[in-house]
Amino acid sequence: MKNLTDWIPEIQNFIETTFRQIDYWFDMAEPCRQYKPLNGGWSIDQILEHISLTNHFLLILILKATKKSLEKKASTLDWQQEVTNYSFQLEKLQQIGIHKSFCWMRPEHMEPKGDITLVEVRQKLKEQLHQCLQVLDQLKNGEGALHKTTMTVNSLGKMDVYEYLYFLAQHGQRHVTQMENNRTEFESLG
Fold first, then answer.
1. pLDDT for 18-38, tens place per residue?
2. Where are the domains positioned within the chain?
3. 4-188 placed in CATH 2.40.160
4. Dihedral angle sign, alpha carbons of residues 117, 136, 73, 93
């Protein structure tokens, strides 16, 4: 069984890898990026905007939970004792990253509207990566496990800050697969 602090570099690496994979799609040729699949799904440009919108709302929760975790650390004499039997929901969280692994009804405010440019979306994603890494740096000793918030998606239940960050990256992975599917369909149609 892994220690809590063993998970942190793995989460950081996964976040950085995911954001790098997402960034790759901004350099794709415009006809491919704007292609909408035959099933009526989103274009790559829309998917990129959706990822940034979802990250925005997840980061609001993550930043609030970070603050509460640090407050709990400051007010708890032996806070490390509280996280000694840490359990990371790896298997449940990995399901989030698999495209179409379960039905996911996203809120309307996370749907792409096309109100911002692709350059702005890319910049937002870079800022969001920076925020994720800052959170991990603030919580590098395991403090992020001190506060949990309920996640209803796929019945995940109570999650700590590290799990929320991993969720954010898995959501990105889900859509990397979707963008790959779009490109494959676009290329097959010639």
1. 999 999 999 999 999 999 999
2. 4-188
3. no
4. positive
